[in-house]
Amino acid sequence: MAHLLSTSCSLKIPSCRKTSFQSLDQSPNAFPTSFTVKTSKSLVRRVVLPGESSQRSHTVYATTTPIKQEASAQKRSSLHQSSNDPSSKQKRVMVIGGDGYCGWATALHLSNKGYEVAIVDNLIRRLFDNQLGLDSLTPITSIHNRIRCWKSLTGKTIELYIGDICDFEFLSETFKSFEPDAVVHFGEQRSAPYSMIDRSRAVFTQHNNVIGTLNVLFAIKEYREQCHLVKLGTMGEYGTPNIDIEEGYLTITHNGRTDTLPYPKQASSFYHLSKVHDSNNIAFTCKAWGIRATDLNQGVVYGVTTEETAMHEELCNRLDYDGVFGTALNRFCVQAAVGHPLTVYGKGGQTRGYLDIRDTVQCVEIAIANPAQPGEFRVFNQFTEQFSVNELAALVTKAGEKLGLDVKTISVPNPRVEAEEHYYNAKHTKLIELGLKPHLLSDSLLDSLLNFAILYKDRVDSKQIMPSVSWRKIGAKTKTVTA
Ligand code: NAD
Ligand code: USQ
């Protein structure tokens, strides 16, 4: 089992450019959030992929040094509609976190739909996996190969900016260079268990997520005032109150006076709390600076295939099944495929909103196509169905048995601090009103997810399945996560 904190780590990037990460220490910023392309002193790299001769395919920007404005940025502006016209369809979309699970599928979907897309990512998620000794169920190729494959299949270019959005200089240059009409922000540390490993991970998560989002807000104010921010929040911001959950706001009458206020937030991990802080910062800047923003409070995502990722094996998305990054339904399908009992935490009454990854990409597209007004902080609850963990386990058991699998369930002592039996009724009508056509969890989807898991079951490391992070045991001491 790999140790969590190694002193350095490098990722292999094809096309002969070696990258290395900064060394780690125990400080709040201990986790490397950017890297530089080492083969040249120049911090601006234009990567021309084999078979693409001199044509621009994608650009790799390193972090801290100002980047020369490229001529192509000017040329481009004649190709796209003016983003200062709020009524025009937004065309240029920056996908921050575009190498991740939701981001990769969304970047391809938007590119397929005719948007000009740039991915901004520091690839830190791949580093987390390396540090923790984890791997996606599905083999995923480098971001460079992914983009090259997409280009060769469709002729469509996705630009690539590699760097850390916590580095404002880097982010500014990506804004000046790409000139986005919309920014979809997926680029955060998104695992609740990761944020609860130890103090340094808690601090890293909140620093990375809150400062990254703050930088995006400043970049919009400074360089692209009309740009629409589509920010991935989470249903977990609301917690599990004993009343219905509304979409962002609640009208309250108190001592005879009535007001519509932000819905109370009761997040239950340092990760989920980072999303609450983000939401507050975004709401404030909408008011103060006239930023236009949509906060997508997304539920738990399941599935792996979208229309675009299915086009070629090199476009395949990641699927996490481990105890840190794996989420409930995806984990249960992989567990069923390898004959591991389904790991229901505690009583299993924990109820959450869920959605198919095909709906994630659809929802984001809908949000971009129907932008918020200047100064508007719009909140959509982005999920399609609610399930308790016990209900998910029962559905996977039934689907597994149909495929001849012997599926068992165990109750695992809950490593989290959360209600295990509670009321849950969350509204989710706004995206439907704007045209979302949900892919509801069906037998056929479960079949295909289970078959996917069976296909790759030899890649499963069973030692990674049981949860190893405890909400109660988190402390200041740096922890090594062992299987
Ligand atoms: P992921 O870990 O697969 O992807 C996140 C990506 O962001 C990674 O590629 C990572 O390298 C990048 N990133 C992180 N910090 C960055 C930084 N400072 N600068 C540049 N890039 C950075 O996560 P995901 O599952 O795709 O989730 C994406 C977003 O959606 C997250 O904000 C998450 O909170 C939200 N969300 C996810 C789910 C889910 O079930 N996966 C559910 C609800 C909400
Ligand atoms: N759970 C189990 N067994 C497991 C895994 C999870 O019982 O093997 C339970 C958890 O205790 C929890 C529920 O299932 O009650 C959901 O857990 P999860 O790991 O599937 O999801 P969560 O930690 O909430 O986080 C995921 C994403 C996060 C996103 C969130 C949406 O990692 O980025 O914000 O889903 S939401 O849950 O709506 O907040």
UniProtKB/TrEMBL annotation:
Signal peptide: none
Protein name: NAD-dependent epimerase/dehydratase domain-containing protein
Native source species: Acer yangbiense
CDD domains associated with the record: SQD1_like_SDR_e
Annotated Polar residues bias: 55-87
Region feature (Disordered): 55-90
Membrane-crossing residue ranges in chain numbering: none
NAD-dependent epimerase/dehydratase domain span: 93-381
Domain of life, source organism: Eukaryota
Similarity comment text for this entry: Belongs to the NAD(P)-dependent epimerase/dehydratase family.
